Amino acid sequence: MTKERKRMLLGLAFVLPSFAMIMGIVAYPILQSVMLSFQTPAGELTMEHYVHLMTDSMWRSNFNHTMYVVIMTTILNTIISYAFACYLIFSKGKTASILGRLYIIPRFIPGIVAVYAMLQFFSNTGAINRFFLQFGWNLRPEIVHTATGLIVANLWFNIPFATMLITSGLADIPKSVIESARDVGAGRLRVFTHVIFPLSYKAMMISATFVFMGNVGSFVTPFLMGASAPRMLGVALFNEFRQFHNINRAAALSVIMFVICAVIGLGYIITSLREAEWEK
User: Fold this and answer.
1) Which CATH number is 76-279's, of 3.40.190.10, 1.10.760.10, 1.10.3720.10, 3.40.50.620?
2) Which DSSP helix (H) or strand (E) runs through 8?
């Protein structure tokens, strides 16, 4: 046995435990869910669960509601986080320095605590309403248990995370490249569109991908702040499994959610590979 072959086998031996763990924890449940989604409770093969999820008006409403909330969250979060990250990186003021230390604080607040705080603040009889009642104005935000309320709550949780990822990408841009562009007469807009954005595009795509996939199956926020109908898919999956004990239909729904996330992940991978080939 050659030395190179021994090294290869040693490397495989080190990788095998983690690979086996991934297969046991991730791959096996996915395969099991796929199998259950094509079975009746009696074990017979069927497409009934997928047909029902695609044709039933309630499930179509749940799907459309989820996609609207997730897409709007991803778009708004990406825009706000990118602008905020640019401010933190390229601003030299004291305010930017302070915000750069404080913006991550929401990540350390437990999710259920933050959601209850939002309920107390934004509900129609919450802190905002009680404050304005002191001046004779009955202001009712009307966003709790609506799609708007879910988007606001999702932004609270995701902006610090996305900003942290984008900030790391912006920080890797060599200052000499930006200064060289300015030296040859490029204005701020041209520097941003031709230097900063292309070099930070990958970090922005990573943050958008994680935000999208993290909100497709979210549960705590939509369970506490969402409406009873339509529901986010994470809550609908929980109800289908826990309340109605329809394991096969819940498995079909989980497969659909997995496919949605896989498509988004594949899009990111293709984009990254194209960018890597362009750079090469």
Assistant:
1) 1.10.3720.10
2) helix 3-22
